[in-house]
Amino acid sequence: MRIERGISLLSARDYSSAKAELMKAQALKTGDERALMALAVAADMDGDFKLSDRAYELLLIRTKDQVMLFNNMGYSYMLRGDLVKAASYLQEAARRDPSNSVVRNNLKMLRLVTPV
Questions:
Q1: What does pTM read for this prediction?
Q2: Torsion angle (degrees, nearest 10) of CA 2, 8, 11, 15
Q3: 8-49: per-residue pLDDT in tens?
Q4: From its phi and psi, is residue 47 left (phi > 0), alpha (psi between -120 and 50) or beta?
């Protein structure tokens, strides 16, 4: 239930509480993909990039949805201001699924601040 609560808090944009709830659910230890992705996003939005990197590292090994993983990692690097890394992850996501509207929108947003 903690995972569902953490995801619900993430949807409500209560990133700090979502992160705390997902940590209590031991997302890093259980390896639950949904929990790890939610934890990574909550940590990114809370500015805890060390934690999001740990979650992304586990997801690189475990997740089947590589498109959204690379998309989210790209967005994470946009938040950090590392636009070169952001572009590389977003371009990889787009290469894997050129019709994905979320990826296209993130690339579009990135292009507004830097040529990709």
A1: 0.92
A2: -40
A3: 999 999 999 999 999 999 999 998 999 999 999 999 999 999
A4: left
Find where tokens 């979320």 sit.
Answer: 102
The pair of three-digit structure tokens given for residue 54, joined into one six-digit string? 């740990």
Q: Is the alpha carbon torsion for 70, 71, 73, 78 positive or negative? A: positive
Instruction: Give 108: exposed, middle or buried? Use CB within 10 Å, 0-12, 13-18, 19+.
Output: exposed
Cα-to-chain-centroid distance, residue 18: 14
| Distance from C-alpha of 42 to C-alpha of 17, rounded to nearest angstrom | 9
State the Cα–Cα distance between residues 36 and 38, nearest whole angstrom: 5
Q: Is the dihedral of CA 107, 110, 111, 116 positive or negative?
A: negative
**Contacts for 40 with CB less than 8 Å, ≥ 6 apart:** 51, 52, 55, 56, 59, 72, 76
SS3 of residue 65 by DSSP: coil
For the chain, percent of residues with pLDDT exceeding 90: 91
